[in-house]
Amino acid sequence: MKNTFGLAGLAVMGENLVLNIESRGFSVSVYNRTYAKTEKFMAGRARGKNITGFESVKSFVESLESPRRIMMMLKAGDPVDQFIDQLIPYLEEGDIIIDGGNSNFHDTIRRLEYVEQKGFRFIGSGVSGGEEGALKGPSIMPGGSVAAWPYLEPVFMAAAAKVDDGTPCCAWMGPGGSGHFVKMVHNGIEYGDMQLICEAYHFMKEIMGMDNNEIHSTFARWNKGELSSYLIEITAEIMAFRDQDGFAVVDRVLDAAGQKGTGKWTVDASLDYGIPLSLISESVFARCLSSFKELRTEASKVLSGDVAKFAGDRPALLEDLGKALYCAKIISYTQGFGLLQAASEEYGWQLNYADIARIWRGGCIIRSAFLDRIAEAYTENPKLANVLLAPYFKEQLVGSQMSLRRVVATALMAGIPMPCHSAAINYFDGLRTQRLPANLLQAQRDYFGAHTYERVDKPRGEWFHTNWTGRGGTTTSTSYSK
Questions:
Q1: Cβ atoms of 356 and 181 closer than 8 Å
Q2: Which of 15, 22, 37, 183 is catalytic?
Q3: Which residues 6+ apart lie within 8 Å of 457 measured at CB?
Q4: Which candidate in 15, 190, 199, 282 is catalytic?
Q5: What span, in angstroms and rounded, lies between the C-alpha atoms of 285 and 91?
Q6: I need a surface site. Which of 161, 188, 415, 454 has the fewest CB within 10 A?
């Protein structure tokens, strides 16, 4: 009897996902490039379970029932392309290849076309939740060959995380590279969330003089309210964790952040589609700046700041900080969903934004109670142009904006960087400003490059050029808006 599902790549995510799927009643075939890894898994965690290990790609493929469902949990890039080519000689028409790694969505689009031309089906699926999520239930974001989804749906729905009402954190995203694009934006929002929390921590530590126990208590309290989320929860736990000698481990961690690239891809996409992803962009740049540890150490010795110590109402300021963090979080997600909308329109994916918010409520790194609000907003108005225009979010931002302003102003005066909180209030103010100074910018562009401009007293789409110096001619450059 043949197995129902195959998985290649037995690193921690692959192993845990195999154990998860098998626990839902599916028989699983596994393969790893290094057979010793397969043997170790079979003799250890997979022992006694409905899991079979294989040494060759041929025997691995032949062990599966048709249409074959083969999921790759491999490092993004060339390893994925190479393994696809290893699989193809043994596949039959209609078989399904699934890429569950963090692949770039452009690669997914290319691979989809390549695999379908061979007569097979291809799925690019985001899988979020880390190693614990893979084992207990991740958030799953599949997209690609539409005809493949009915064969994958029973497996993915069973393996996905479930929220309190039993809803699986998995939904079909759409055609093309939609699944990996949604996962990429998820990771971009994750970058923003993490940096916002780090800025709040820095604010409490450096401006308010709070110790780790007080910071732990604050995050634990926030986790019981509107800010309730996985990242707030683990931050509270991190602040309370002590080394064997009783010293706080967080204070021994080097302040140089790493990244794997999905944040950068998100920012790249925002530039491609002209979406102001300012907060998430700042979170990526904050990691970049942190990596220059030696340079920052040297600069700290010679670049002094004329800063002011805070001497106001500390309890009120801490209350402001919680509200500021929530406001900035709203704006981060607003920008992320704006990017999803732009890509959906560009590629014709017809993404369901309410579904995306729902499947992010459990399993994934950015899971939070807050996502229910976004799901409700898009359910009420699937064509919502901007999250901040939904009644709940409009009320929150208008009502709490002064907290965000006071926190950012206090940080600026104290010389403490809060790039993401600052980006949040700047986006809010830019969005609500009917007339921005871009009129001068367009005049400048027309002055030095004859790029033309539109006029407020003429219909949109009509372009004009002025001979600003009296020395220019009537020849103009190409008009463009992005």
A1: no
A2: 183
A3: none
A4: 190
A5: 44
A6: 415
pLDDT band at 482 (very low <50, low <70, confident <90, very high): low
What pLDDT sits at residue 137?
A: 96
Instruction: Give the sheet arrangement for strand 69-72, strand by strand.
Output: 51-54, 28-31, 5-8, 69-72, 96-99, 121-128, 139-144
Q: Is 118 a catalytic residue?
A: no
Q: How far apart are CA 77 and CA 390, in angstroms?
A: 39
Please report which residue ranges of 212-352 form alpha helices under DSSP H: 212-222, 230-240, 262-273, 278-290, 293-302, 314-347
- Residue type at 476? T
* 190 a catalytic residue: yes
Q: Please give the pLDDT value at position 227.
A: 95
Q: For residue 79, with 0-12 CB atoms within 10 Å meaning exposed, 13-18 middle and 19 or more buried, which class applies?
A: middle
Question: What CATH number does the domain located at 5-176 have?
Answer: 3.40.50.720
Q: What value does the mean pLDDT take over residues 148-162?
A: 97
What are 189's two structure tokens?
């929002």
- C-alpha 148, offset from chain centre: 25
Specify the pLDDT at position 468. 92
pLDDT digits (tens, 9 = 90+) for 72-127: 999 989 999 999 999 999 999 999 999 999 999 999 999 999 999 999 999 999 99
> Per the CATH hierarchy, to which homologous superfamily does domain 183-432 belong?
N-(1-d-carboxylethyl)-l-norvaline Dehydrogenase; domain 2 (1.10.1040.10)
